[in-house]
Amino acid sequence: MSAQIDIELTRQALASSTLSHGLGILGDRWTVQVLMGTFMGLKRFEQWQQQLGLPRSTLAERLRSLSAIGLLRARPYQDRPLRHAYHATAKTLALYPQVLMIWNWEKRWGQSDVGLPEALNHRRCGHKSTPTLACQACGGDADIPRMGLRLKPVPALLKFKPRLGRAPRIPVGSTPHVSLGLRVDRWNLLIVTAVVLGCHHFDQLSQVLGIGPSVLARRLEGMVESGLLRCDADRRDGRRRLYRLTPASRDLLGYIVCLSHWAGVHQFQQPSSIVPTHECGHEFKPLVVCSHCRQPLLAHEVAPQYAPTDTRSVAPKGHTARSDMAAA
Predict the structure, then answer these.
(1) Residue ranges of domains in the chain
(2) DSSP secondary structure letter of residue 119
(3) Mean pLDDT across the stretch 109-133?
(4) Of 60, 242, 283, 326, which residue is least crowded by CB atoms under 10 Å?
């Protein structure tokens, strides 16, 4: 099956995808954590630094870049006008489904050092909620078996190379789980997407992604070690290896489709070159709903609940994600 894929069409679709271009903006491993901190109520530079442990120069650069694209709005402190607090914007709120998918994945597969909420309480129905990916058209659950994909490269985005930078070496260890914010970065997500599109062999992945063989080999080794990919011998040719998805990488679907949708609608105003369809027959647009009442999860209607012994969260006293989002 994988040998029958159109390599050039797949390459163009990935290169012009809103996912690829969106990851050029938000796929940095620390940018994800800064955004998560925003929804957890962090506003001040010192809070992010205490929570994430970033070097001051790195954190300052991330805050500047997020402010430049309208995802954060800097306001001077009332008591210290030369210092700034960073507030969410309407554009940030549109990322909330993606943030919920990050939380979902981390709770199941991650070992994040960031103090994520232990649970999410849905104020509308009064129950604890597990964010659930659904189809906007029919409201039904969405996962890989329920989805189809069409490829249609977008000329406007094909002209510009996404800002992916180099593919840095990722640590390889014996830990069976990984952290989305720290180790599932933009290149790993693109590799997972290429496998979803049918690229299971090393040479196929190298061609459609444009990654050099040595760098790709390290990437795949790390993803297999961390449980994001499975490597099997090809029954047709024992010298080749097949790369397959694992339950952990399948669960990245929600994060991938929510980011792709946000990038197309709110950042680039372009359609996706990778067009998902739901089993209901409609083009798939993501909706994240409450697992109990099936209503959309909105930032001001979700209250994070932290474990009593969790001392890592540094959200300012008296502030919650609900109050922060309502004030945005």
Answers:
(1) 2-327
(2) E
(3) 85
(4) 326
